[in-house]
Structure formats: structure tokens, C-alpha cells
Amino acid sequence: MPYGWVGQVLRINLSEGKVTKEPLNLEWAREFIGGRGLGTRYLYEEIDPACDPLGPENKVIFATGPLTGTYAPTGGRYMVICKGPLTDAIACSNSGGYWGPELKFAGYDMVILEGKAPKPVYIWVYNDQVEIRDASHVWGKTTEETEDILRAETDPQARTSGIGPAGENLSRVACVINDKSRAAGRSGVGAAVGSKNVKAMVVRGTGAVEVADAMKFSELVFESLRLLNESPTATKALRGLGTASTVGFTNSIGILPTNNFQAGQFGEANAISGPVIAQTVLRRNKGCYSCPIGCARVTETKGPSKWQGRGEGPEYETIFGLGSDCGVGDLNAVLYANYLCNLYAMDTISAGGTVATAMELAEKGYIPAADLAELEFELKFGNPDAVMACLELMAYRRGRFGDLLAEGGYRLAEHYGHPELFMGVKKQDFAAYDPRGVKGMGLGYATSNRGACHLRGYSMMLEWFAPREMRLDPFTTDGKAQAQKTLQDKAACEDSSGICTFTTFEVTPDKLYPMYNAATGENLTLDEWNLAGERIWNLERLFNSRAGFSRKDDNLPPRMTREPLTGGAVQEQVVELEPMLREYYDIRGWDDDGSPRAETLSKLGLG
Fold this sequence. Notes:
Layout: E1 8-13, E2 18-23, H1 26-32, H2 35-46, E3 60-64, E4 78-83, E5 90-95, H3 99-105, E6 110-114, E7 121-126, E8 129-134, H4 143-153, E9 159-162, H5 165-168, E10 176-178, E11 182-184, H6 189-194, E12 198-204, H7 214-230, H8 233-241, H9 247-253, H10 274-280, E13 282-286, E14 296-300, E15 310-312, H11 316-322, H12 331-344, H13 348-363, H14 369-373, H15 384-396, H16 399-406, H17 409-415, E16 424-425, E17 428-429, H18 439-447, H19 460-465, H20 480-497, H21 509-520, H22 526-546, H23 558-562, E18 565-567, E19 570-573, H24 577-588, H25 598-604
């Protein structure tokens, strides 16, 4: 029996109603680590990347890492991998909570969903017992209602991962939600699950994940815990204030996106910031499986307000997406919009980005008066009623405008003849950092394989958060290509291992790869670990190339390259993308069109 990995794949052919179990390809696991990398390898081998992401030919893979379900710090992650309905590119969305470990405890590293069920179903997994069950009674219900019903009829200790109304209606901003509020958020993976008529996977496992060298593994884990507990980022910032701790800083330096990235400072930022959340609406913090940080916020709206509710959030990205990017500074409204996205199972970044795009289109007069007349609200920045209404429209595809919103911001802007007003890359919305004030992030957004993403190469750590003597100047292009390449490869390994990116502020690659070795019994060197990350990144690039992507798609909206950002520390800045991109391709070993050269593929074992 393998260690770390549990050695088994669950394959569910929904068209035939057939369940099979097969050994995990351990050769691939060693080459691609697990999770993101291994799931991508399976997908690359099993589907045509040019297929319709909402068609039965697409597959959806739920993949864990070798550290998932162990007592590694934050060893609770799993990934949803498919061709992305929002982007038409490779999709890999990462989530925490408890569902991933539960899948490992049931005896599976990975679940592959293929085909399409003839009617709504859910999957019930109890160790070796696997059933495809009717889900007609929960189809149309929210994520919270669905989890409560399915746990009641299976096992109260079971864990669920599934979709809400947005995924059922094939909204391209739909996500997958587990444990009621943990989201595999980006690229429309919830729509891919919905296209297969799968409502949820409910899992209960009573096994365990064994590690190869328990003594060594324990030593490494306890050393990592010490580092995390001493870390000001992990404790004071994330444990104390959650990711919302970032709001005040990005606003002060001028890169908090506001009104669809028309500005980098929001006048009402303080009202929706981490300290205010902690002092007013926070009930408690919360952690995922094996998490020493506890960055999640459990909140409840306060005071006289039409927006009343309770739930989890908001994260920093949500505060931007549903707050500053839409010009909304009412904290109760931001919380309520967050709760709606959890219930409908929608990515808060892309949902907010789509609403902000619609608001700017309306502001500039690009949406015909006849279309606006159909709406029962005023589509303008700063109107929380518009945000709530648009979220419902895009989740349920209500009316013609709801259909357009559900297609995401790029397709909405393209429909009205102004795709340049969409702020994203490869049809996926930017995250909460305006790249004109952090230019390495601009290169990272442009080259991210899954579309615009801050987590694939988080150069904010080097450009703003690092000690001054180690910092890269955020306003130049110097060193950004090499930094992004290194960070992207690093993130690929971290995602594949099964731990949370927040751990890696302190658990750096030189500490993570020995933990992986102790868990699996492998004997990788640091160079081999880094090479695995590069291998994963290039395989994702090959997938996208076969799907029709090329250099033309490694771009930024003209606003980022032509319209200077001002405010705070940012004055008269644009992103000079081309010189960074040329250097990046050269460092990657890619040709002028962004395709990996033969010698690069040979070095990585992909030739």
C-alpha cells in the first residue's frame, strides 16, 4: 500500500450509471505530486481540450494531495479540475474545509466524473460502498439546504461537496461549495458539475492516511507549527483579522480596485475593513481541517438594515468583488451578498466582477435603454440593491439580462460591443490587486493558465509585503519574469501537495518537500521538487495550447496598459506587459508564440 496517497481512484460514468475503482497511477503521482498536478495529468490524457466544457465529453476530477488528510498544517485541501466553462481553459479550483480529508479516509485519492446523468443525482460514498442516488428532491435547493437534507438521509457525520442553483443553471461563474461555505471558486467549475446533472457528492470515511516515516513527519510538522505560530502574517493578520486585514493596506497604497478598476482607492474602504469586521459583525473565527491559523470569519449582520443574515465571510477578495469594485461600502450589504453567493454557490470574485462590468457598461450608456427598462433596479455603482438583484439573476438565469450575466463579465461586455471594459484575462476576472501598482501581478494575471489569478503567482509578497531590503520595486518590470516563473512553479507544488497557500508563508519549499518525502516515502531533492512544479505548469500550458490558446491570450485589458492609475503610492502607472512577457517566455523555454520548446518538454519528461 502506498503512503500519503491511498492508492485508489473512484471513476463514475454518469451516462451508464456505472461505478468502478482503479489503482492510482503511482508513476504519474510521483511525477506530478498529487492534487492539481496529478488531476491535470489525468484530464490531459482523457479528454480533448477542444471539447465543449459544458458537454458530456468534459470530465470533472475531484483530486486530493498526498498531504490531504494527514496532520500536516492545513492538510485539508482538494481541487476540482476540468475544462473551465468560464474560460475554456484548464480549470483547477482549490478548496479547504473537511471534504477532501474525508474522501481520503474513505479510501480514494481522486474521483472522476464522466458523461452525464439522465436526471439529477448525488453520489453517496461510505468507504467501499458507492451509490448513485436520485437528487430530484434537492435540485433547486441552496447549498445549506442540500447539505442538511443529504446528511440527514446518509450519515450526520458525512461531508458534502456540491453545487447550488447557479451550477444547476450552468451559470459560468458557479463554484463548488463544501461544508456550506468553503468554495472551489474559480473558472465556473460548478457549471461543469451541473452540466453532468450532479448535485453533490456526500462522503463518509472511517479509514486513515498513513505516512511512511511517522517520526520524521511529526518532527517536520511540529517545526512548521512553531514557525506558523510565531509568524505575524499567520497569527496577527490572518488569525486575528482574516484576509480582510489586507483591505486597509491595499487601499492606502492605491491598488484596491474600485468601480470596475476605474480607481485604486475606495472612499468607504474603512467601513468594510478587517478591524471594523472584527469589532462589529464577527462572531468567531474558524479553521479548516488540521489548520493552526483559523482565518475564516463567522459573521452576522448587525444593526438596523434591510440586509439581515449570518454565515461565513467575507474574505478580502469578496470585500473587493462585492464591495469596492461595485462601489458598495455598506458592510451589511457586502456580508449579505457574500451569504447569497455561498447559498447559490457562485465565485464571489467573478460574480462581483460581472456586476461591476455591467455597472460600467450602464454608466457609459452602452446598455440600451430598453434592456435597462426591464430591470427593477438602477444599475449603477454604489447601489447594493443592484448587486443583490444581479446575483439572483445570474444564479437563476432569470430573463434575458440574467442570461447575459450568467455568461460572465467578458461575454456580457462582448455582447454589448465593449469587451475592453471587462477586467480580466482569458475571460476570468482579476482578483483584488490593481496590477498598475504591482506590475509583477500584471504578468502573473496575463500568464496564469486558468485565467487571471492572484494565487498562481502571488508577487505581492515580493513587491509590497517583503522587508524593504528584499523587496522588488512594484513600479518597474525588473526581475518580475523570473519572480513569476519561480512563484508559479512553487504554487503548483503546493496546490498538488494538499496544503493551503497560507501555510507557505512560513513552510517554504525547502521545508515542504521533506514533509512530502516523509509522508510518501519518496526521496525527492529540492531541485526535483521544483522541477515537478515546472512540469505541472507546462502540462497546463500544453492543455491550453490544444484548446486553442496562444500568446494572444496572455494579455491585459487596455485600461491596464494605457490608462494610468493614480492615488496613494501609485502615480501615473500602467503595466508595461510586453517586455516582461518576452523575458518570461525566454526563461520558461517557450517560443515566441508561448509554446514550450521541444527541449523544454524533453527536460520535463513531457516530450
